[in-house]
Amino acid sequence: MGSTRGKRAALGVIAVTVASAAAVTATQLGCTGGEGDRSGSGEGGSTGEETGGESADGPRDAATHPPGARPRVIPAVRDWEAARGPGWKPGPDTRVVAESGSAVEDEARRLARELRVDYADSGAGAGDVELALDSDVAGGREAYELTTADGRVRISGSADAGVFYGTRTLVQSLRERDAMPEGTVRDRPDRPQRGLMVDTARKHFSADWLADRLREMGDLKLNQLQLHFSDDQGFRIESETSPGSVSEQHLTKNQVRELVRLARSLHITVVPEIDSPGHLGALLAEHPELALRNGSGELVEGAIDIGKPAAGRLVDELLEEYAELFPGAYWHLGGDEYRPLTAEDPEANHPRLHRIAQRRFGERATVRDLATAWLNDRAKTVRKLGYTPQVWNDGMHAGGEVRPSKRREVTYWTGKEIGARPPGEYLAEGWKLINLNDEYLYYVLGEPQQFTYPTGERIYREWTPAVLRGSRAEPAGSTTPSRVPGARLAVWCDLADAQSAQEVAAGIRMPLAALAQKVWDPREPKASWREFRELADEVDRGRG
User: 20 to 30 A Cα–Cα from 511, which one of 236, 243, 245, 462?
Assistant: First the structure.
């Protein structure tokens, strides 16, 4: 049932006060070349001289107000149709209204808590915010329309994800100017996969730290968090299959469940990664009989023996154990930097693996074919569990007797590793690529091996999802959203003590914001970098 009106007006969570007048800024955060920018101020959108109208207590006659100024949010709205009117800001009688039991009730209740106003299930009127599903909203399940008119706000989308993103636009606008300008936002993301990857294996990050990143990501309309939780230096999630491998500092399964629950409420998918057949040192500490040795009997760091069937069973059991924790659509299998393949002559260095490959796949087969078959088997396991597998690009090998199995996606990070190929080859073969370009999107603690910390400014000025390797974009038409579904900023903890968790959070703040802008709308932004950075500061202060 609808709740009593007029209980609360304070907006401390987002630093909004009812008494404040609508703050107006000259800076517009649209993108050049945008279709449908009907702000009423000539070609290219608003001039920056518009005002957001008088206080909500002022005259209600729309004709007395100039057109509403484009909302200033991150990522910038794609389409703004300005209208004349005073805009909207919350007042003492404001409610957030959504039908009880509908898919957007949770979104309405969240927004009501953020605004510190009441939730109601019907009867939206002047002063209220109404959330609703509307199948006529075009652009997919993450698209939304937000209309401010007649003293109220209506946010609609074909699915709850779009409605949620509409509430993020409203909340950010309130943080930035205490009001929502008069007019209509029509908005949608360009790429369906938009996110952050965190290496929790080499450096433990607490559940609270990860929860803070999820909230930050939700505010930026990002929708994937990849957790690389197993490597040579650590294994960071509680396990019954291999309890002795679990590091002292780790997440319990209940902590993971809570993080996944929070992520789902923010429309974020958690993508787990158990990297294999390399990067398994922590796991192999409990299973030394499965550690690989070369032809001289020397241990190969982090490498599991892909010639032993028990090795595959162990990793599959872990994949099956963790499946109940991660209800999302994707599972990352790793596949990169398997040390036998980086040797000058893998067959001479690992004659036993070579013989096994030949027995299984013919006389022309090599160790690389055995590694490809290993990843194919792990992909088959996660597909049976309902996931689409993802793998690093240097685990995808050209030619050979065994080819990578289909229905997988490739996270492209490098063209420098041994065996790595330029992105155009993968695209020509029909693979979908997720952009993790190490030139722009790799935040590697301590900056080893000539890595440098990425900056938001470089991403904002130079990078787009089409820039998959180095700083040059792939040819137009080859990197559409169906071919390059998105991108992630990657935090790698190679020198784990180089930064504290708090320093990492501060260091990735602007790169993550810039990434969010470019995967939502890859076109050249209208706002300068200085304006974008200042807006990010304003929005972040409101979040706190």
Answer: 236
Distance set, CA 273 to CA 382, 399, 508 (Å): 11, 26, 21
Block residue for tokens 């002047």: 126
Q: How far is residue 473's CA from residue 344's CA, in Å, rounded to a whole number?
A: 32
Length of the chain measured in residues: 544
CA–CA separation, 515 vs 524, rounded Å?
A: 13
Would you state the torsion angle of the CA atoms of residues 134, 139, 141, 146, taken in this order, to the nearest 10 degrees?
A: -50
Q: How far apart are CA 522 and CA 257, in angstroms?
A: 34
What is the CB neighbour count within 10 angstroms for residue 190? 18
Residue 504, phi then psi, degrees to nearest 5: -60, -45
For residue 276, the SS3 value is: strand
The Cα–Cα gap between 27 and 70 comes to 9
Average pLDDT over residues 394-415: 94
Candidates 5, 177, 1; CA nearest to 87 is 177
Does residue 232 surpass a pLDDT of 90?
yes
Say whether the peptide bond before residue 522 is cis (omega within 30 degrees of 0): no
Preceding amide of 75 cis, omega within 30: yes
Q: Rounded distance, CA 5 to CA 7, Å?
A: 6
Contact 235, 250 (CB under 8 A): yes
Distance of CA 456 to the CA centre of its chain: 16
Tell me the two tokens of residue 36: 């449908």
Instruction: Summarize pLDDT for 413-472 with one digit per residue, the tens.
Output: 988 777 779 999 999 999 999 999 999 999 999 999 999 999 999 999 999 999 999 999
Alpha helices of 274-326 — where are they, by DSSP H?
A: 281-284, 309-323
**Ramachandran category for residue 101: left, alpha or beta (phi over 0 → left; psi -120 to 50 → alpha):** left
How far apart, in whole angstroms, are the C-alpha atoms of residue 183 and residue 87? 8
Beta bridge partners of 410: 391, 433
Question: Is residue 34 classed as helix, strand or coil in its secondary structure?
Answer: coil
